[in-house]
Amino acid sequence: MNLVYLRLEILRIVRSPQFALFTIAVPLGMFLLFGGLFGDQVGPGGIKASVTTMINMGAYGAMSGALFTGTRVATERTDGWQRQLRLTPMRGPGYLAVKIASAMAMALPVVVVIFVAGAVRGVQLTAAQWLLSGVSLWLGALPFAVLGLLLGLFGKGDTVGAMTGALMLPLGVFGGLWMPLAFLPEWMSALARFFPTYWLGRVGTLPVDHAGGLGLAVGVLAAWLVVPALVVVRRFRLGPVKVA
Question: Which residue has the higher pLDDT, 53 or 79?
């Protein structure tokens, strides 16, 4: 992996106002809002809604940060940058690795910010629970980094941002991240299991509620990682397609 290219990629993303708005400000604001509305209520397992909301918003932010890389990929494809890179010593696997690594680098600070806000708002967890939940959310964002690549390799530079936003909405709402499922109708809980964001929230919550099912959650996220990854690799091997 080209570390210099990775550093430049991260700097480009961080300097984007869209990154600060959609990846950090939105989930933070939603945590403060919903945490205030449901914070004192207790859900299944005796877990306070403030804890569940914090973890869910951390998951939503991690997903947003990971998906954001698709915008850069689409822009580079549209501008012919991918064609130029193919003339350099950097090969396809290195390019894709940098994109995924930068996406994961963007997912981490969002989780940290949300968790710090949770601690300030009075969320109390053990040191192990803070660590395991945060790391689980970060690693669980990997499938969304690949989904971001997928969008970038197929979409146009001027539309992928809108496509990403349109995708994030149902993933957040129907995946059960925006509001605790314990306070929603049963059909919402059943529907949520068909969305990868539900399982991302689960891997982050398991260190707290000890409800079990880690293998299933990891397996579902792994499937959401492998299948899009195969499409990404095949699409990239076909070479950059000129976008009108």
Answer: 53
